[in-house]
Write a structure and sequence with these properties.
By secondary structure, the protein is α/β, with parallel strands linked by helices. 42% of the residues lie in helices and 15% in strands. Strands 3-4-2-5-1-6-7 form a 7-stranded mixed β-sheet, with helices on both faces. α1 packs across α12. The longest helix has 15 residues, at 150-164. The structure holds adenosine-5'-triphosphate (ATP) and magnesium ion (MG). The site of adenosine-5'-triphosphate has 19 residues, from α1 and α10.
């Protein structure tokens, strides 16, 4: 079972949009996927139009097995939802004297042979749950919104990952996913170039600004359901192909010439 965390300490960069569409895209390619929402905002269930009785809170507090908290969202795609009660679990984990950073890894153990991929949608910030997310992941997808001053936040996140990886040797910050690319805004393209200078072939082809991506949320659908011919669907499909290939290095394939057409 491959555990992929979609994480970035900065808020509003496209983590949930990426986690939901990555999960559904992998499910449509025939992989058995579990999407786990680890954010008190509980956006994943809303994004997919799913109602869940049990959530990650009960699982992390030891009140329910993850096997009972899983809800079917689509063919090949299950969800463990979250809501604002997750902050109770975060407090309980933070108070644990030992092994607090392993609570999520332990919670996922019973489903390890049921799924090919677990996708963890991380919350912004750095609380006990966020440390748990990185504590059990194999790979990180780090969405980076192409806005001015974003790079400083990314470098902070990279340092945070380095600290956590002392406890999780398999953790690999594998994909930097540029989001909100808008070449009508000069800084957007400049920011992409800077990102590539820093992180080279780990920088994936960018996700362009696309209104259908935000609209799909309101319709409780993934982009592949709501607007399969949109830019958002095209860009996320290219990213999912890359993740499916599971190459050790990422080669963007996107040239400056490709970026002219927005
Ligand atoms: N490429 C895009 N083009 C247009 N809108 C987008 C795009 N990606 C995401 N959005 C919209 O931007 C907003 C923020 O995205 P999202 O919720 O995925 O970010 P997040 O990183 O999960 O936020 P948070 O840190 O609060 O969890 C949402 O309204 C989403 O629909
Ligand atoms: Mg989110």
């Amino acid at each position: 079972m491959r555990i992929i965390a979609v994480a970035m300490t900065k808020g509003g960069v496209g983590k949930t949009t990426t986690a939901v569409n990555l999960s559904h895209g992998l499910a449509l390619r025939g992989q058995r996927v579990l999407l786990v929402d680890t954010d008190t905002q509980g956006q994943c269930a809303k994004a997919l139009g799913v109602q869940a009785d049990l959530t990650l809170t009960e699982v992390l507090l030891g009140e329910a097995s993850i096997l009972h908290a899983v809800t079917r969202a689509r063919e090949n795609l299950d969800l463990v939802a979250s809501n604002h009660h997750l902050s109770r679990a975060a407090l309980a984990i933070a108070r644990r004297e030992t092994d607090g950073h392993l609570a999520l890894a332990e919670a996922l153990d019973p489903v390890s042979d049921r799924y090919d991929v677990v996708v963890l949608d991380a919350a912004p910030g750095v609380d006990a749950i966020a440390v748990n997310v990185l504590g059990c992941a194999d790979e990180i997808v780090a969405p980076v919104a192409l806005s001015p001053a974003a790079l400083a936040g990314v470098l902070d996140f990279v340092r945070h990952v380095e600290r956590v990886s002392r406890h999780n040797a398999k953790l690999h910050l594998k994909y930097f996913l540029p989001t909100f690319l808008d070449l009508r805004i000069k800084q957007s393209g400049e920011m992409l170039i800077q990102l590539r200078e820093h992180f080279c072939d780990r920088v994936c082809s960018a996700i362009r600004v696309n209104v259908e991506l935000s609209e799909s949320f309101g319709w409780r659908q993934s982009i592949f359901e709501y607007a399969p011919k949109s830019r958002g669907a095209t860009d996320y499909s290219a990213f999912i192909d890359l993740v499916s290939e599971n190459d050790s290095a990422v080669t963007s394939g996107q040239t400056e010439a490709d970026l002219v057409e927005v």
